[in-house]
Amino acid sequence: MRDITQQIKKGDKSDSVELMTDYFTHLRIKNTVDRFLAMAQQVADKLAGVVETRTGSKIARPEDLVRLYDIILQNYADMRDVTSLDKDGDTYQMIHVNTLFYRTKRCFYIAECHLGQSNWLNAIVLYDKCTEHIEQTVQGANASKSSKTQPMVEDLQVLSKQIYSQRCSAHASAFLQTQLVEEEMKEISSDKNKMLAESLEEFRLIKNENDLPTIATLPPDFQPIPCKPTFFDISLNHIEFPDLEERVEKETSGLSSFTKWIWGR
Length: 265
What we know:
Elements: H1 2-10, H2 13-48, H3 62-80, H4 90-116, H5 120-144, H6 150-190, H7 255-263
């Protein structure tokens, strides 16, 4: 901002409007960055356990910090495009250092996202990339020779130790996962007598012809069946019943039948 104000004082009146526009643009972007940095600090404190999460409030996640740092980096890119900004001044150099610093932060929390999803190998690669970003940021901070970069360097030293511990944890988890997979593969491949129909959803490691699965057993094993068929009633249409007409009493007609009905005979 000091570079722009000096140009306003030295410049002509025709250029003052453009310089003032750039000045207020720079000021607006700086305030926006400060706002999102305050939000990122709150989320980081919740993740670290410094601030307790209230009941019913949203739980902080590394993905939230990745989104906030994306917005911050976009704002620094817009700040770099201010036309009246001196490309060789201290302000432009601080923008470059801040971009490197928050890019390192963003890379770290992306690695944390992969670590939380058990993507150990991706997390290890991102931690290594984050270490490279730290070295570039420290070099840029030392080249700027500004006192504002000292807190950044101290923060990166703490972050470097955290990266080392998290990377060791990811290495151990990846090695343990590899051992568990090898044990499961041994258990699967060792069960050679299991029928193919019983293991259709299992993966088998077949190294030679002796490891081929058993398709069927000959002769087949005996299986219990019910003594009464399930569809027994279907045979009813094919059963011939005996003629019982001779045993049925023939009803008489006329008065005799009427008198029997009266007297209950």
